[in-house]
Each structure stands twice: as C-alpha cells, then as structure tokens.
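Sharing a chain and its predicted structure for anyone who wants a worked example. Both blocks are below, sequence first, tokens second.
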Amino acid sequence: MILLIIEVREVSREEKLRTIISTIDNSEYSNNKDNNIQHNCKMKTFKDPQETWLSSTFSKMKYADYKPFQFVDGEGVRCSIYLSGCLFACKECFNESIQNFNAGSPYTMELEDKIIEDLGNSYVQGLTLLGGEPFLNTQVAIQLVERVRKEFGDKKDIWVYSGYTYEQLLRSSEDKKKLLDLCDVLVDGPFMIFLKDLSLRFRGSSNQRIIDIKKSTIDNVVLYLD
C-alpha cells in the first residue's frame, strides 16, 4: 500500500499578483513594439484614448491645485499645477478626485502671475504640469508654458505627466503636439494598478516612462531617467 502525502501550501497575495501579471500582454510599452499593434491588455484598468478626446470639447479651464516648491513631481525644486479633468479613469488613480473637469477653480491671470513669480526664485528648477490630464487642458497648459518660455527661456525645465503615451501624442491633435513640443520631459502612459511599484522615481507604475522629449522621435524614444 502506497501512502501519498500532498502538501497544501497557502499562496501569498504577492505570488497571486505575480501570477496575474505574468498573464498580461503589456507589449505596447516595450521599447521594440510595433506601433501598428494595438494594446491588448487582458486586465483593463483604464480607458483607451479616443480621437474625440479634445481639449476644446472637455476642458473647463480649471485647475484643482497649485503647489509651489515641490520635490516629488520631477527633479529639483518644482512648481506644480494640477489641471482638472481626465478621461482615462485609471483604477486607483492617485488624483481620482480631480478627474472631473468641473473640479477646482477657474484658471486666472492672478494664478499665472503667481506661478511666474515663484519660478523666478533661483532655487526652483522648473514647472510641472499634472492632472487630471494636461493634454485635455491644452488651452490653459499652452498659455502657461508659453509664458514660462517667454519669461525664462530654457533656464527653467518643464515636465508634463500624461495618460497618453509619447507615440499616441505624436499621432494626436495639433494642440497636443504643440504642448508636447513646448515641454522638456514627459512622464507617459496610464497608471496601471497591477504594475504599481513604489520604488520607482517620479512615477507610479512600471509601464510609465520618463522621456527626454527634445532627444526623442517616434522611432527612437530616449529616456531621461530609467
């Protein structure tokens, strides 16, 4: 008679998560992806961008918050503005409360003057645009960024965070491409809760990239930071 002993082992939460992640096709965010292949994530935790997503349609020209002298929204000391409204609806978004385009207060010249004044401090490295989704608030974002360039030239760098990928922005509407061209660094891609990594610098999930806009092309994306 043969006695079989079966060991029953409790699977940890971390092991379950690794198993789930291993089943996900995340090829859109690989460096060598075919740009014609559509993202085919089996666990959809955000909405895919549409051609109808236009700033002229959705933006209410509002901002949810302005935080001067920050250290978390890019390199160095930064002035950060959070523009209201986003359509990506990423699950467990850090700024879910400002996905509504009506959140916050109207953008004003008084606020813009304050941002310029704060950026004038020698210890401030630059401006960061966040949201919400800056590329769905291009009226406000372009106005502010053009003012920064007029006042400071290239002495202050400009970071922008977006749920769009770099490649998507290059194929997008003219206002989005204009804003992209005015900025220096793009943190791209939607937040993916199943790729969340607290060890990453200046981003929330490992699909997101920190891109040097001035050095990049659609065929050669250059990372500003790994």
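Comments welcome. Helices lie at 13-22, 55-58, 109-119, 138-152, 166-170, 174-182.
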